[in-house]
Amino acid sequence: MSETSDQSPPKKSIFSLLFKLLTWLLSLGCFYLVYSRIDAAAEHQGISAWKYLLDFFAEVNWGLWLAVMIPYSIFFFFVDTHVTWRAIRWFNAPHLGFTKILPIRASAYILALVNEQVGKGAMSLYLLKTYQVPGWKALSTMIFIGVVEIYQLLMFSSMGLIFRFDQVQQASSMLPLDIILPSVFAVAFLYFPFHVAYFRGFLFKHSKLRDISVLHALRNAKIWHYALAVLFKAPNLIGAVVVYTIALGLFQVEASVGQMLIFLPLIFLAAALPLPFHAGALLLWTVLFPDYPEVGAFSLVMHTFFVVFNALIGVVFLPRANKELFG
Q: Tens of pLDDT along 77-100?
């Protein structure tokens, strides 16, 4: 028994290293594919890839771009905090005030620059110190929010698919998106009733999986919890559709609100993949806009600004957050 336990940590360490190596290799592959398409477009114009990108960025009205991005980032922060606050009140701390969670959620954006899970840990620490909520219970609420985020993106994208299917067919030159997307949506939406029925105890009543501590919020979540959480988060995604459509126009990339309603939720899902620099989203931008290979660079600029500005919001609230956490 002791020999087995002694060998476990090295095996886990090797698995972790292999996983990191695989994610980096996949990311490098994504960057190479994007760069090769940019290089091909630049060669067609008789210039270098770097000159091609410099020309792309030189045409942007950066002042107008900032005038769009800054208000949306602030708006996103308040909506995101409101959803987190609601979920915590439902499953962890019914008496938590909205103004109390603002500095903790904002400071989590700073920690998310390093690792998003560390940012969630700050909120868990606050709930433990202030409301005696165990860490696993707070984590269960983050899992619930994660499930809501995935289904919200799928719902919005499926609506775009229904009303703008012709645009999906046009974007299916590199991947058969007109087949992949309906299949994914069908599986996801068929699973959801099973998900709720299982965690509410209506199916497989003797199953022990639902009793795991970190699934506390899923066991207690009712249909109306999911519906309200999606409703509360909707303004952020609707705002993102409008903001990205305007921003693409400023970067001389033709895109409609209908296209972004379909594509942006999918891009956000790809960004959630555990790949460095959100390489999955970077590649997907190029797949969805094959006539504009430079949108890969556009996505990096948008994401970098967003996380950095959110971190600046966190800096503003940091003194209050420190006071809440450490007195």
A: 999 999 999 999 999 888 888 888
Q: Which of 76, 84, 118 is nearest to 100 (CA)?
A: 84
- The whole-model pTM stands at 0.83
More confident residue, 179 or 219: 219
Question: For 30-49, how does the pLDDT look when each residue is reduced to its tens digit (9 = 90+)?
Answer: 788 888 888 888 787 778 77
Q: What is the pLDDT of residue 5?
A: 45
Q: How many Å apart are CA 264 and CA 37, to the nearest integer?
A: 21
Residue numbers of the domain that contains 107: 2-326
Asked whether the CA dihedral 114, 145, 86, 244 is positive or negative, the reply is positive
* Domain count for the chain: 1
For the cut 80, the answer to whether the pLDDT of residue 317 exceeds it is yes
Check the CA dihedral 144-150-151-152 and report its sign.
Answer: positive
CA–CA distances in Å: residue 4 to residues 1, 8, 11, 18, 235 = 5, 6, 10, 21, 51
Question: How does DSSP classify residue 48?
Answer: -
CA distance 262 to 268: 11
Query: Which residue, chain included where needed, has tokens 């903001």?
Result: 243
- DSSP characters for 207-273? -SGGGSGGGHHHHH--HHHHHHHHHHHHHHHHHHHHHHHHHHHHTT----HHHHHHHHHHHHHHHTS
> Mean pLDDT: which of 23-27, 102-106, 281-285 is highest?
102-106
Closest CA to 264 of 301, 223, 232, 236: 236
Exposure b/e, 263-289, CB count within 10 A at least 16 = b: bbbbbbbbbeeebeebbbbbbbbbbbb
DSSP string, 276-291: GGGHHHHHHHHHH-TT
The model's confidence at residue 206, banded by pLDDT at 50, 70 and 90, is: confident
Cβ proximity of 111 and 309 under 8 Å: no
Contact of 14 with 264, CB cutoff 8 Å: no
